[in-house]
Amino acid sequence: MSRDIDVLVLGGAGVDTIVYVPALPLPYADSYMIDSGIRTRAGQTGDFVAVGLGALGLNTHHLDFLGDDPEGDLVRALHRDRGIALTAVPQPAGTKRAVNLVGPDARRLSLYDTSRAHPDDRLPPDTLRPLAEASRHVHVSITHPCAHALPLLRGTGATLSTDLHDWDGENPYHEPFALAADVVFLSAAALTDPEHTLRDIAARGRADVVVATAGAEGAYLLTDDELTHIPPVAPPAPVIDSNGAGDAFAAAFLFGRLTGEPPHRCALYGAVAGAHACTVRSTETDAITRDALLARVGSAR
Fold first, then answer.
1. What angle do CA 7, 64, 275 make, to 5 degrees?
2. Apex CA 13: angle with CA 10 and CA 15, to 5°?
3. Helices and strands, number each (H, E), in the chain
4. CA atoms 18, 23, 25, 30: torsion sign
5. Could you write out the three-class secondary structure of 230-292?
6. Where are the domains of the chain?
7. Which one-letter DSSP state was computed for residue 69?
8. Minimal CA–CA distance to 249: which of 281, 222, 275, 223?
9. Helices 290-300 and 245-258: crossing angle, nearest 10°?
10. Cβ distance 3 to 134 under 8 Å?
11. 1 pLDDT more than 60
12. d(CA 46, CA 246)
């Protein structure tokens, strides 16, 4: 079977409205003057992973629901401009959207509009199966339709990854994703015992690699039953925004994995890409390139 697509990114397409606020949590007031502007741009988790993979030279395809609306047009334009193939399943409820409040310390609070989906949304098997079968790897966003796609994906022979984001290690919604993937990413932000959660995922699921990112503290990598702390990488410019750092980490880690690098080097790739993302304002989309990644990895040794 020919697998011409390096990575199929499943789900996570949408738009974010970015608001830089003077503090988080935001104290109540009748109004705030937002001098930096309130801006809507294409890009949610799947979009950012796809853009990151494309910037690193991997042949990437993105599949998700999109509405016939201005927000959907922004997502289509992002993929067209970045040369990323996009298959959009029509979504009558409209394109997914969110509002991200970003504080002066680069932290983010996201407000997700859950009205842009239906409980019975399913990715069409006749669309999904041939794309997955043509892919070396599938990165799965934790959206409702993607959960229903997991059994089909496991039968295609492609390896799987997922990002559980700020999972607390207990919410049952995330478990099907955690247990079906070969590579699992998550944030340590809501974990009381990161090592326990990583080992639990590996013990009960299929993952041979589990990674918990920990912001300025670096990351934790579990592979071959060994837990390793991955130190943070100094950003190449001032940190202004943490939006997209986890997606950048995942994209660079997968780049390393698909080019034959061992897990610890993949994690270093992820740390470098995540640090780069923290220097980019949320209103922009500027993924690290392959040349820049490899150069910064060389200098980070």
1. 55
2. 165
3. 9, 13
4. negative
5. ECCCCCCCCCCCCCCHHHHHHHHHHHHHHCCCCHHHHHHHHHHHHHHHCCCCCCCCCCCCHHH
6. 5-13+42-92+118-300
7. S
8. 275
9. 90
10. yes
11. no
12. 11
Contact 179, 152 (CB under 8 A): no
CB atoms within 10 A of CB 215: 18
**What is d(CA 130, CA 103) in angstroms, rounded to the nearest whole number?**
43
Measured CA to CA, the distance from residue 294 to residue 29 in angstroms comes to 47
C-alpha dihedral, 22 to 27 to 30 to 36, nearest 10°: 10
Tell me which fold the domain 5-13+42-92+118-300 belongs to: UDP-N-acetylmuramoyl-L-alanine:D-glutamate ligase (3.40.1190)
For 271, other C-beta atoms within 10 Å of its C-beta total: 26
Q: How far apart, in Å, are the Cα atoms of 258 and each of 159, 181, 221, 253, 254?
A: 10, 15, 17, 9, 6
Give residue-wise pLDDT tens across range 23-69. 999 999 999 999 988 999 998 999 999 999 999 999 999 999 999 99
Helix or strand or coil: residue 178?
helix
**Non-local CB neighbours of 289 within 8 Å, separated by 6+ positions:** 55, 56
Token pair listed for 195: 């090592």
Confidence (pLDDT) at 237: 86
State which amino acid sits at residue 64: D
Q: Do the strands 5-10 and 135-140 form a parallel or antiparallel pair, or are they unpaired? A: parallel
Chain-centre distance of CA 255, in angstroms? Answer: 13
Amino acid letter, 226:
E
Beta-strand pair 219-223/226-230: antiparallel
